[in-house]
From TrEMBL:
Top-rank taxon, per record: Bacteria
Species: Anaeroselena agilis
Gene3D superfamilies recorded: Ribosomal protein L17
Protein name according to UniProt: Large ribosomal subunit protein bL17
Cross-referenced InterPro entries: Ribosomal_bL17, Ribosomal_bL17_sf
PANTHER family xrefs: LARGE RIBOSOMAL SUBUNIT PROTEIN BL17M, RIBOSOMAL PROTEIN L17
Tagged with keyword Transmembrane: no
Length: 112
């Protein structure tokens, strides 16, 4: 399976995406670099698929990854049922342009 390493070891990368996805589901959209947005979009699709299943095991799997119980509750009670009839494509990436400090390409990741 191909994934971007983003200059981090595996534990730092997992911690990064745990915090990104927790913020993403809490707020509905986040602004981050383009590469992080593309990777977070894949993981967000997996979390929404768990929320669509909606059983206890799926909830516990989401709780093991996301860092806030309130976010998991929102994911399973609001976001999951919203996409019940959708087969995929839950997120949208809008490109913003370069960041002022280091010219890294920035994007907005949001729910469709």
């Amino acid at each position: 399976m191909f994934y971007r390493k983003l200059g981090r070891d595996s534990s730092a990368r997992k911690a990064l995406f745990r915090s990104i996805l927790t913020s993403f589901f809490a707020h509905g959209r986040i602004e981050t670099t383009e590469m992080k947005a593309k990777e977070a979009s894949k993981l967000a699709a997996k979390m929404i698929t768990l929320a669509k299943r909606g059983d206890l095991h799926a909830r516990r799997q989401a709780l093991s990854f996301l860092m806030d119980e309130d976010v998991v509750k929102k994911l399973f009670d609001e976001i999951g049922p919203k996409y019940k009839d959708r087969q995929g494509g839950y997120t949208r990436i809008l490109k913003l342009g370069p960041r002022r400090g280091d010219a890294a390409p920035m994007s907005i990741l949001e729910l469709v």
